[in-house]
């Protein structure tokens, strides 16, 4: 099976620090997967490795059967936690630029999500608040019709009042017949009802990968409760 | 809009402020030239500010490329996740620098020319050689500037590769590599092998009204420099595609 992101015995070190240790799992198309874990557990690094923007120290990461590298961006729509934008652009210009660079960027879909996110298309990005930058990040990431959508903490910076509606809106723009959404979040409770499966990390090691239903059946626990039980 | 033109426009926007500041500085240089023309006894002295400004342009493209790359470094995942191959991303930055240096030099020459016209009688004996020197210098400044910009790219890419591997030592390593490669290049240029490789297709540029000796160049030197630049550019593109992490 080639339509899958596969990690095989992946270890990642930065200078002398081991961030991920011997991680192996695969995520097929058609899933919404949450990567959960405490601070410094390696969630963001794991996502960057899947996107090909980071390279494993040992082991291998493949996307659709090909070794992940920077050019994996063709099939992976990735958004980083800190938000990456060219501040020289307005919201509309940023969308047009993405459309010019990615063949799978759907400008009409981006317009639709932009309206849902209540963003002013003429606003300069450098003038946007942190929350609105987060919304723009969601627009730019979800408007791509790439098979894999990777979002690092997409909910951080969003107002708690609008978070629920934005999360629901986000999911409605993912086509599970042809796409997989993988996201990290500290707000496990808020995404639990939306995700099919989860990858739990602790200290850079894979603690568990399972379907949410499987966890409910085997342990009778929600992810949040299981994490409290396991991590503490 | 197609991929590369959109990338080129984005890269222009990243450095346009510095570009416009440069043009304003050119206006000041032209005003200084006019002033020197009025106060100096030696009519050639009025060319000193222009000559300095033109010479400084060798640093123009590397500065523009470095500013652009530094700006990309602030949001590296965004730049690296672009699906275009690295050579296209890097070429866009060099092309921007090239466009800007051509405009800046042309603007400087044109502005100075306009100011010199009323004083033409003072420089008339040197005029033919003056514009011929200008014609000689113009492409050479641009070429040297592009060579330096490719070196700036290699150093930037090397730093990006090393910073996640050896941390703070990456700066020391990059400085070391720069000194060693610069020294190695200078040393190689003193060898017989270098002369053997490059000293063919001699061209002597004569400017008798300004310089007593002709400037001797070789086609082989241009070919050698071109090959080094292409090699370094390919190395940089490979580093960005395969080793730089976002």
From TrEMBL, chain A:
<dbReference type="InterPro" id="IPR003439">
    <property type="entry name" value="ABC_transporter-like_ATP-bd"/>
</dbReference>
<dbReference type="InterPro" id="IPR027417">
    <property type="entry name" value="P-loop_NTPase"/>
</dbReference>
<dbReference type="InterPro" id="IPR003593">
    <property type="entry name" value="AAA+_ATPase"/>
</dbReference>
<dbReference type="Pfam" id="PF00005">
    <property type="entry name" value="ABC_tran"/>
</dbReference>
<feature type="domain" description="ABC transporter">
    <location>
        <begin position="5"/>
        <end position="228"/>
    </location>
</feature>
<protein>
    <submittedName>
        <fullName>Spermidine/putrescine ABC transporter ATP-binding protein</fullName>
    </submittedName>
</protein>
<keyword id="KW-0547">Nucleotide-binding</keyword>
<dbReference type="GO" id="GO:0005524">
    <property type="term" value="F:ATP binding"/>
</dbReference>
<keyword id="KW-0067">ATP-binding</keyword>
TrEMBL record, chain B:
<feature type="transmembrane region" description="Helical">
    <location>
        <begin position="90"/>
        <end position="117"/>
    </location>
</feature>
<feature type="transmembrane region" description="Helical">
    <location>
        <begin position="222"/>
        <end position="240"/>
    </location>
</feature>
<feature type="transmembrane region" description="Helical">
    <location>
        <begin position="17"/>
        <end position="37"/>
    </location>
</feature>
<feature type="transmembrane region" description="Helical">
    <location>
        <begin position="43"/>
        <end position="69"/>
    </location>
</feature>
<keyword id="KW-1133">Transmembrane helix</keyword>
<keyword id="KW-0472">Membrane</keyword>
<protein>
    <recommendedName>
        <fullName>ABC transporter permease</fullName>
    </recommendedName>
</protein>
<feature type="transmembrane region" description="Helical">
    <location>
        <begin position="137"/>
        <end position="159"/>
    </location>
</feature>
<keyword id="KW-0812">Transmembrane</keyword>
